């Protein structure tokens, strides 16, 4: 399989490495520019986007990572990773870096800051085999997206979803070219279908 890196500065790195291995990829942690240059694709894990943003500076990964994304390296961001890949963030820190790759605006902690988590079964375009059980942890949503961004999943309009009416139908999974992102954490559920989709993208099969 392809060699897929997981950005390993902070966040749930192990879970992504395991999910990638189970999805037919070879998985490796990426902390240094030399490691980044070896991988065929990169996962940006869940965690804290402001912290990851600072660590990208400290580990001198910001410029090489932007360069690889601009050159078309496939990337998948979950939650904090989605925030980093968006062109613009609302409710972020002023000095938070955006890597870009997804022509959209995300809102951090969108479902309510005080809400730790919720779970919902989602229809996910391009993932066969029934709904995907989505775990949201202080998750962002996509506030708006350019037509170039393909919407793959939305939360329901169930009033149980934290955020109430404002949250109904919000976009929570997207793809633009070789960049995939989910506001939730498939790496935590043992369901590898989203990681398999990403591996297929890296292999050029999807
Ligand atoms: N709230 C976090 C952030 O803003 C994301 C949370 C997560 O990745 N589970 O980066």
From TrEMBL:
Under InterPro entries, the record lists: Class_I_gatase-like, PdxT/SNO, PdxT/SNO_CS
Reactions that this protein is recorded to catalyse: aldehydo-D-ribose 5-phosphate + D-glyceraldehyde 3-phosphate + L-glutamine = pyridoxal 5'-phosphate + L-glutamate + phosphate + 3 H2O + H(+); L-glutamine + H2O = L-glutamate + NH4(+)
Keyword list (alphabetical) reads: Glutamine amidotransferase, Hydrolase, Lyase, Pyridoxal phosphate
Q: Name one GO molecular function term.
A: pyridoxal 5'-phosphate synthase (glutamine hydrolysing) activity
Pfam families documented for this protein: SNO
EC number(s) given by UniProt:
4.3.3.6, 3.5.1.2
Q: Which family does it belong to?
A: Belongs to the glutaminase PdxT/SNO family.
Q: How does it assemble?
A: In the presence of PdxS, forms a dodecamer of heterodimers. Only shows activity in the heterodimer.
This protein is called what? Pyridoxal 5'-phosphate synthase subunit PdxT
The protein's organism comes out as: Actinophytocola glycyrrhizae
């Amino acid at each position: 399989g392809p060699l897929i890196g997981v950005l390993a500065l902070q966040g749930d790195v192990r879970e992504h490495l395991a999910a990638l291995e189970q999805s037919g990829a070879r998985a490796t942690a990426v902390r240094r520019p030399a490691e980044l240059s070896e991988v065929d694709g990169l996962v940006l894990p869940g965690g804290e986007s402001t912290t990851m943003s600072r660590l990208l500076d400290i580990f001198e990964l910001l410029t090489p990572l932007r360069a690889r994304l601009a050159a078309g390296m496939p990337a998948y961001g979950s939650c904090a990773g989605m925030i980093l890949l968006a062109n613009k963030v609302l409710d972020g820190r002023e000095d938070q870096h955006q890597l870009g790759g997804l022509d959209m605006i995300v809102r951090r902690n969108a479902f309510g800051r005080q809400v730790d988590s919720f779970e919902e079964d989602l229809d996910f375009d391009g993932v066969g085999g029934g709904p995907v059980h989505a775990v949201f942890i202080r998750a962002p949503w996509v506030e708006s997206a350019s037509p170039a961004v393909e919407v793959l999943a939305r939360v329901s309009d169930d009033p149980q979803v934290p955020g109430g009416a404002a949250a109904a139908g919000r976009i929570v999974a997207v793809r633009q070219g070789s960049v995939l992102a989910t506001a939730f954490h498939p790496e935590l559920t043992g369901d590898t279908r989203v990681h398999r989709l990403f591996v297929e993208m890296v292999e050029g099969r999807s």
